[in-house]
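ok trying this again, last paste got cut off
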Amino acid sequence: MFIVSEEWKAAYPGAAAGILVMHDVANPASHPEIDRLRTELESQLRSRFAGGDRSALAALQPIQAYNTYFKRYGKTYHVQLQLESVGLKGKSTAHVAALVEAMFIAELKNLLLTAGHDLQSIQPPIRLAVAKGDERYTMLNGREQVCKAGDMMMADGQGVISSVLHGPDQRTRITADTRQVIFAVYAPPGIGEPAVRLHLLDIQANVLLIAPNARVEYLEVHAA
């Protein structure tokens, strides 16, 4: 189901990628336990970073690793910007459907870049690769995007489903009808397998709050 290309291993020694597949999930518009988790996390982040500044956030190890990656393309890691919004500015995260929010909460907690997909929309196998720079896909906002050469990306039998710089695609997005889900984590060098595995377990726990009878079909971390 999941293939790690040799070019990815060669291009990013020390990197890792995590995959979590769960069946019998649900995706209601909201869920009280997910709402509770979100509120608690936001409160914890505001307390933790009270009186801090951007440099304090940038010094966090996961963010350092991602910013090293993103700066090669003249960009800042967007999860750092989300953390600044909550931890420094006191704002709340946007409310989205519960299954997606289960992923976002773990992403903001652990600061690891994650994409979610409807597994039934995937044409296996999924391949972790390095973009050549001519791959195109439609992003969640409906815009067509050309991948940046050298960017980490994942593709199925039909095309790109996500990339680090531009995020997940529209074709395999999580919807209200999603009952089988796959979460994919990109971790550049400097983060390591244990952190990725713990992050996947956090997502799993969050999903089980929404759908207690959901089951894990696959949970694995692949290292370069």
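PB: full thing came through this time. The mean pLDDT is 96.
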